[in-house]
Amino acid sequence: MSLSSIPLTRIAPVVAAVRAREVADPVALCTALAEGGIHWVEFNTAVPAPAARPVGAAGRPGTRVGVGPILTVNQAESAAARGAAFLVAPGCDPAIARAARRLGLPFVLGALTATDIADAAHLGASAVKVFPAGTVGPRYFQEMHDRYPHLPMIAAGGVGADDAADYLAAGAAAVCVGEDVVSPAAVASGDWAEITRRARDFTAGLPEWCAASRAPGRPGQLASVTARAMAVPW
Ligand SMILES: O=C(O)C(=O)C[C@H](O)[C@H](O)COP(=O)(O)O
């Protein structure tokens, strides 16, 4: 029996993965990304309290901060206590899925093969993060989307500004970008303008998806908001 998924309802088409373990000002980072058109952010599990303060500067509501990689139930609980809007696990761990459901949080499970993707769906994942997407390429997303049309897929790992649109066109609900946008050097030096510039460069190649994601209720777009997540002040 398949568990019913906690829905992700309007995920933005671009998710920024912050792999740095230390971020001096997570709110400034989220604001910089939002100014560049990226409103979904996955912080490293190691970043302390990334979402403890309101994100989403004035006029930019809607930034959603998730946490990953979640490897243990303790990490899931800690992320929830810190106000994570969604959890991201690198694989299909039933214990993490159960914890996320108990915590009432949307959760993303990592997968690559068709079997992994089926497992993620069976565990009730709100979306599946197909990683490393660069090893399979956009056409793989078309193939998987044809077989699992109701499971939002996030293309992660090796997706660049030059091919992000290809993944979205092939059926990915979102692309996840890491160091190309969230440059470790810029994070370390607090160069938020550089982060914004990189985010703008990335989203500039996706005008139709980024514009569509701002239209309410567009079918087929991910969105991660449960009643509980919406209660988070940012
Ligand atoms: O392992 C994880 O938890 C991930 O989030 C996978 C990758 O780190 C991101 O998808 C970013 O990958 P790049 O854009 O290639 O830098």
Automatic annotation (TrEMBL):
CDD domains to which the protein is assigned, alphabetical: KDPG_aldolase (cd00452)
KW Chloroplast (keyword) present: no
Molecular function terms, GO-annotated: (4S)-4-hydroxy-2-oxoglutarate aldolase activity; 2-dehydro-3-deoxy-phosphogluconate aldolase activity
Annotated transmembrane regions: none
Enzyme class at the top of the EC tree: lyase
One Pfam assignment: Aldolase
Enzyme Commission code: 4.1.2.14, 4.1.3.42
Organism superkingdom: Bacteria
Keyword terms: Carbohydrate metabolism, Lyase
Pathway: Carbohydrate acid metabolism
Subunit structure: Homotrimer.
Family: Belongs to the KHG/KDPG aldolase family.
Protein known as: 2-dehydro-3-deoxyphosphogluconate aldolase/(4S)-4-hydroxy-2-oxoglutarate aldolase
